[in-house]
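REVIEWER CHECKLIST
Item 1: Sequence provided? yes
Item 2: Single chain? yes
Item 3: Sequence as submitted:
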Amino acid sequence: MSHEPFIEKLRAQLEEWDYQLDRFEHRVKDMSHDLQQKAGSKVDEFRSKRHELEHKIGELEKASERALDDLRDGVELAWNGLKTGFYAARSEFEKDEEDDKK
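Item 4: Structure as written out by the authors:
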């Protein structure tokens, strides 16, 4: 994959990420106060990691094609970790929300 399509793919993933995070934040508003606080700290953590990922994408844009391969692996690893952590946290909050309603 060349430089530009890879970066475009990452930017599209960030847009999807923003959408998913916004949806999660709206759902949190309907949860109990305790879950809202817990979720709020997770949202802050994910926003911080998202910012780091955006910074790495900026580095990719400035990198030469040779350096791109090294950076690409790191960015993909960071993206996969961020995505996995978000979906795990979202699943946990959905479970906690269900338990809270019982």
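Item 5: Key structural point noted by reviewer: Residues 3-101 form one domain.
Item 6: Recommendation: ____
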